[in-house]
Amino acid sequence: MNNPPHDPPARSAQDTIPVGGSLRTLMAQDRMHARLVVVAGVFCVLFSAIGLKLTMATIISPMPPQQQQIAPQVPPIPKSDPKGMIAGDVALPQVHRASIIDRTGQVLAMSLPVAQVYANPQEMIDAADAAHKLKTALPTLNEQETKRRLSLNKQFVYLARDISPAQELAINNLGIPGIYFEPGERRRYPMGSVAAQILGGVDIDDHGVAGVERFFDKRLDSDRAPLRLSVDVRVQNVVHDELQSAMDTFQAIGACAIVMDVHTGEIITMVSLPDYDANDFGRAAPDARFNRAVTGMYEPGSTFKLQTVAMALQDGVAHIWDSFSSTPIKIGRFTISDMKSDHFAPWLSLPEVMAYSSNPAAAHIALDAGAARQQDWLRSMGFFSRVPIELPEAGRPIVPSVHNWGVSTTMTVAFGHGVAEPPLSIVRGTAATANGGFLLKPTLLAPDTAGQQADAPPAPDATDTPPGMPASAERLISAANSDILRRILRLDVAKGTGQKAESPGYYVGGKTGTAEKIGPHGGYLKHVNVSAFTGIFPMNAPRYAIYVMLDSPKPTAQTHGWTTAGWNAAPTASHMITRIAPMLGLFPDTQHAATIEASLAIPMRPAVPRGYRALGPGYDPGTAHLHEHEREVTGHAGHPHTARKATSTAQVPARDLHASNDVDRLAAPHPRDRG
């Protein structure tokens, strides 16, 4: 039997002997395998390092949330918040507008970094959810309006303006797609209403629109160094408080006060009420924005008699021993008289004219000087021009045309009627009478040299501009006449209408002034006054001029029905001086009172020196001018210098002028005298 054939046995892989290219392929595969192992090992090491770093950053030593967000984006800038109250060691973004500080370095205005929030609605996933989340970071946000805006078919909508860095971080942490930020800055006024009218404000683009913000707009934008003002916020606060108290007590509709250095012209304080929060400039009422110290125009009343007397002394028209009639002056149907004249003689010396504040006597002095000399004096003292101050709101005075400046205008201007001046002009003129006779340019800028105000500047000499006084100062009054005027001003506070302005130990000198207000239809309003006091302290070594004005004060039981300056503006000035003088480095000197008072004394009726003939009864050139004018009035109807024509030119309406006088009797008056 034959056996079936058998298949040959199969070979195993080991039995296969590779030859040629097959061997090379196998070796390449082995090398690739080794490389993959190495790469895998490297990746394992890298991922282990990353994992360790994440563990350190999130679990072992986590970064604060704020720094976690912004640290990678902020370069290593030196710390700008030493106390770490803003955001750790992170410096705030730089702002381009310089800050404004007071003379002591207190910040009055500064710019803070802010952001504007905007969105691209087309990138929104859920507008309602986004609006709800934004509301949590911005509580004042209108959620429904925001939802509507985020649903618009637009690529750009504003959501919020001027948000703080903290709010920006909070919104950023919400992770809402389509929300973006635009950097900017916002002007802030840390002191609120303090010096609001001085500072002014800026618009939405951070450009100055009022006050020093506008006057120094280019300077604030181009130089980051702080702008230092002459204002002292300590004094500003005290004066504001006292003025507000007086305004409330006398129910005045407005008020202002100024304190100025009589040797440098620096404005130490300037307050105007009502005022406003400087942070809300855009929403402030027009009356609150109105700076009564430089924009307001008021008839100065009897404070202008100081200029009439200064003119008479400096131009040689009168001497302190000359006498002038206080008898009422009748011009046509107008009468110039005193409100209360039974306590002084029919003829008054120059010191008495000021102490008793006689209108007819001041008118006679002006008549002796003449219209041309009066105009020249007022022009040289700056009363015809805009007061020079670094405020764009400073206005121009209202004065009659010199071509129609007749006799009645000359007389009424002599006691502060028929012209309207800003209070700062009155302060400037008052300072010139007491600082040795130098007219200064007021300024809101602090001196360049630190500590310049530490010591009182030396008393001015009779010829040159004294040390410490600006080179622009112009001498208009001699040193001798300035000394006389200081004594007369001191007399007015010691024995005259300004007695309630006295502040023991500070030897205040000054002049009261009361003027009735002009009504809406052109006539004067009875018993509606502008009451003012202008003064100097201390008078034995003048340092500061002070001015206080109350608009339409009401009578009180303490004033016995009076609304004149001696009863309201003068005591307000006294309260201010007593409180602010120590802040200014001045302290009351009562130990040497007798010596100081003797150095400031002037007789009410100075004796006439031998060889001189005093003006007075029987020798009064002004009366001759008045009689000549009366002949013109009665003999030439329609003559340009008639009382009606001249009075109209001087803006004095038809009325008896006696009611505008400010003879402030300090004893309780008889009921018939109350007006």
Automatic annotation (TrEMBL):
Residues 95-203 form the Penicillin-binding protein dimerisation domain. Its main location: membrane. It is found in: Membrane. Its EC number is 2.4.1.129. One of its GO terms (biological process) is cell wall organization. One of its GO terms (molecular function) is penicillin binding. PANTHER family: PEPTIDOGLYCAN D,D-TRANSPEPTIDASE, PEPTIDOGLYCAN D,D-TRANSPEPTIDASE FTSI. This is Peptidoglycan synthase FtsI. It comes from Komagataeibacter europaeus (Gluconacetobacter europaeus).
